[in-house]
Amino acid sequence: MCKRFFALVLLAALALPLSLIAQTPSLAVQVDHTIAKVSPMLYGLMTEEINFSYDGGLYAELVRDRAIGEGRRALTHWTMAARGNSAVVVSVDAQIGPSAALPRSLKVSVTSATETAPAGVQNDGFWGIPVRPQTTYSGSFYAKTDSAGVPVTVSLVNDETGATAASATVTGLTGEWKQYTFTLKTAQAPVTANNHLILTIPRPATVWFDLVSLFPPTYHGRPYGDRIDLMEKLAAMHPAFLRLPGGNYLEGDHIAERFEWKNTIGPLVDRPTHPSPWRYRSSDGMGLLEFLEWCEDLKIEPVLAVYAGYSMAQEHVDAGPALESYVQDALDEIEFVTGDAGTKWGAERAKNGHPAPFPLHYVEIGNEDWFDRSGSYDGRYAQYYREIKQRYPDLQLIATAPIKSVKPDVLDEHFYMTAEKSFSDANHYDKTDRSGPKIFVGEWATREGEPTPNLQAALADAAWMTGMERNSDIVIMASYAPLFVNVNPGGMQWETDLIGYDALTSYGSPSYWAQVLFANHLGAEVVASTLANAGPWVYASVTRDEKRRKLFVKVVNASSDAATMTIALDGAPGVGREATLIVLSGKSPNATNSIANPEAVIPVERRIQIAGPKFERSFAPYSINVLELSY
């Protein structure tokens, strides 16, 4: 009976129309037929202060709460340090600070101490302070004392062993506020983040401290600069732009908590800090100039977002006279970025150490203003548009919600999706009206996996990116979000983030590697291609670089089975028989990377042979593939 059943099944299959029987997927490519130019700004970076992205992340400051804040949690990361029979009281002095911007300080009152049993205060950093051997750390603090001449010893001390990795003594303290600098140089210290910073004095005295700072070596050696490992990962993404200062961080929960750029420039002691929307305070060490220097270091352009009169607690400023000062603030900000030293704000930038203007072509007006229930964005955008265009007619202005009063140059659209949605909507822009504004996909991600995406999310991301590439005449910019997450307990406010790190190390998620593959293998033109018999799990895009005579074929196989595909290249005078294949894959869609296993899912590159203009290629299950061909 079993044999008879299978025979009937076979006969039924043979009776089906050929179109209903599973066929080999095929990709027909017309190499000499381009359908669009690829936007040179297509792939970039979106950033904001979330998940300890700046403080405790990219901004390399190792001291947490370096400027003393207000409230009951002001001393959370500052505790007394007393050796032997010494004694000390640590408190916040709300009446004494080094500047108008920083009106409070850390009051350290030592009542008993000696050279062998000093006392003072210690800081635990951002989930520890990383120490490496043969490394130089640059530090500073502001201080004053009631006992002139009292020395301060600064030390890096291991939490578990009590061993001192490095120390230095600062002298010359007086009754007036002054900044003091020091250098800590480690010898053969073990590599560990289990360390704290201690400031001690050897006799009874009171010392007031504020803006206590310690930096490891930074990217390009910038003072108060960025973490080397994280900047190297960003550079590997080959981005074209940085959207700054980014997202909700621009708006703040309340108008008074917005990113006030004028409070983030100049000496650190003159930056008042401010609450971020993600329930911790920003040091504002990553100020407007530091954002711009971040762009400069990566050789990319800023996409500058200016505050547009709306904050997330449904506070807004109506268009008209009330909005004028905010529009003027945006004009001043643009001048700070682009003005020469003969302009008011260009001169201010030069005074801050950067005489040369920065390139700027795109300005975004607000962020996610579709959340504004007042309906005021149309009028607010129009007011900014008129006044910015009057002074800077060549700037491309980005709207963050659909508007009717004027036609924006670019519209910012955001997508946070499940993998199912990313796959099903990968052709989202295939039929977009080309007469409308250009599109900036300013925030997007497949949200599966935490703290960083798994392979399933990366496959869905790659499917979505094939759609953006095919339509890069209309989708001119795109940036995954969020960019960073500190993986320590309490470090994450939003799950599924591109790059994870702790105090010592970092890793790229599978989605990070998908971004690297797509951005590093992107031609200047979209080539006509037809994907057939692919089913719901295979996606493709094709671009070419005519100058280099390179063709980039990207194939995503999100199924659990290998996909054998026929690829036909027409319209090319000849096709090189040797090609490069780069594959990002894993055994399971749940495969992922982590601090403990940072390279579980990484790209593998190899040279392959192809039969000619028409050939077959098998693509592994759960794989993202980049095929680089010469023609």
Structural commentary:
The chain has 631 residues and is an alpha/beta fold. It folds into three domains: 21-37 and 523-630, Sandwich (Immunoglobulin-like); 43-60 and 221-520, TIM Barrel, CATH 3.20.20.80; 78-215, Sandwich (Jelly Rolls). The protein is 17% helix and 33% strand. It has ten helices and 34 strands. The protein has a nine-stranded mixed β-sheet with strand order 32-31-34-29-28-27-1-30-33, with helices on one face. A hairpin with a 3-residue loop joins β17 (310-311) and β18. α5 (324-338) crosses α6 (344-351) and α9 (455-470) packs parallel to α10. The longest helix is centred in the last third of the chain and has 16 residues, at 455-470.
Helices, strands, pairings?
Layout (H helix, E strand, L loop, with lengths): L1 H14 L10 E12 L5 E4 L31 E5 L4 E7 L11 E8 L6 E5 L12 E10 L6 E7 L5 E7 L7 E8 L9 E7 L3 E11 L12 H9 L4 E4 L2 H5 L22 E2 L5 E2 L5 H11 L2 E6 L3 E2 L3 E2 L7 H15 L5 H8 L10 E4 L11 H15 L4 E4 L10 E8 L1 H6 L13 E9 L8 H16 L4 E6 L3 E3 L12 E3 L4 E3 L1 H11 L4 E8 L5 E8 L4 E8 L5 E8 L7 E8 L18 E6 L4 E6 L3 E8 L1
Parallel strand pairs: 1-30, 2-13, 2-23, 13-16, 16-19, 19-20, 20-21, 21-22, 22-23, 24-25
Antiparallel strand pairs: 1-27, 3-6, 4-5, 5-12, 6-11, 7-10, 7-12, 8-9, 8-11, 14-15, 17-18, 25-26, 27-28, 28-29, 29-34, 30-33, 31-32, 31-34
